[in-house]
Write a structure and sequence with these properties.
Elements: E1 4-10, H1 27-37, E2 43-45, E3 51-53, H2 55-63, E4 68-74, H3 81-92, H4 99-111, H5 118-121, H6 125-136
Parallel strand pairs: 2-4
Antiparallel strand pairs: 1-4, 2-3
Amino acid sequence: MIKKEYLELPIESVVVKGSLRKEMGDMITLENSIRKLGLLDPLVVDASNILICGERRLQACRNLGMATVPVIKMDIAFDSMTALDVQSDLNLCREPFTNDDLNRLIDRKKASMPNRGADDEHPGLLDKLRKTFSSSTTTE
């Protein structure tokens, strides 16, 4: 088992050595989530604080002016096969919402707001969620 440590690091101590992504995509939605709830998914760094996973999250935290970020520090090297496994597994082993899952989530959010619908608080957000997830899923 690989040794892992959960801690907060100064954001400037996290080093980006090599990026797999050519584009960061929609940062506004991610930044709004972090602003509202904090960083829910820690970054992953190697033993030397080189970023293994979480470049978009790191950039969003930098954009928001955060001084520290939660990380999982793994006792591995950035350029190791294990680090590549971590990158691929964290990004590929997720199951996206189906359209039915998304609709149930939206219905629950609406039901939790007794005096208004979710669209009142975040105009267009639910439509954006539906559009995003319906274009990335094929299962109803």
